[in-house]
Design brief:
The complex is a heterodimer of chains A (197) and B (151). With 197 residues, chain A is α+β, with helices and mostly antiparallel strands. Chain A is built from nine helices and five strands. In chain A, helix 2 links the parallel strand 2 and strand 3. In chain A, helix 3 runs antiparallel to helix 4. Chain B is 70% helix and 0% strand. Chain B is mainly alpha-helical. The chains are: A alpha+beta (197), B mainly alpha (151).
Amino acid sequence: MKFCAAALIALLPCLAAAVDQDRGKQIGSPSAPVRMELYSDFQCPHCRVFHEAVLPELLKDYIVPGKVLLISHEFPLPMHQHAREAADYATAAARIGKYQEVSSALFLSQDAWANNGKVWDAVASALTPAEQKKVQALVKESSVLSEVQSDLQGGTMAGVNETPTLIIFSGSKRYSFPGPTPGNYSLLRSLIDGLVR
Amino acid sequence: MDLSARPWPLVALVLRLLLGAVFVYAAWTKLRQPWELFALAIDSYQILPMRAVEFVARALPWLELLLGALLLSGFWRRISTSAVSLLLLFFFALMIRAYAKGMQISCGCFGLGEIISWKTLLRDGSLLACSLFVTWTAFRGSAGTRNNAGI
């Protein structure tokens, strides 16, 4: 019993850290009836379309009203040379609560850094000088790198084989499918409406 | 030609039952999930407007179930085998088109999550070949030759 209590106390900081890591990539209410996990690659053009055209709709229709909790996961594909570096920086930025800002900056200038490899320039554009220092330090931490690796392994185990992939959880139901485009967003709406009804 | 003296009737029976089981399974994988997921797979082929995508996503699994049941039961053999062959031919053509265009999309054959690859093409091509053979034997068998294998 004493051992269990001691182990629990020892684990508390780790649990708290895990919650913080998760929250950095979450948008929406944790008590939302639908949880949506997004596996995305910053260098993938379809992911950019999803981020720029579908995510704002999703935010407006379901996340802000508290119906959906969105959790982002990194899934840098091996064929994309700079995707892993971008995922590392974004994960480091999540630790200081700047994940969404850095994600937007990375997608906005995707063409540029995908070609010239200057990922940091895109990341830095979304941060203040003080935040840049923090992110530069965090990106070297093994916990950040292992979080990205853990996302990759989790996605692979969940059957993710393309990006963007959405996995929806609602009660005992679980559905995995490719991230919708602006053209078929109505299907995602219909699906979520059916789940939150 | 006496078909009963050859192995074809038995082979055709086995293949018809196999195709029937595959169609029933394919229908079940779609019907147990919300129709919107299959609609997303259909839409990724980029050939139909959204209204048609929604209609096909709702109707096709039931058609697959009906055809699978007909193949398994042996009723309306010529109609059911012809319909299955046409359907598989259509699916195969769509998959070839998507593969040739380099589209990294889910084939939608048995629910979602299976990207079109040479493996899915080989599998669907084999199913098509089986279906064409079963259709051929259904017509040939009922064109004048009595067969005892129930083809």
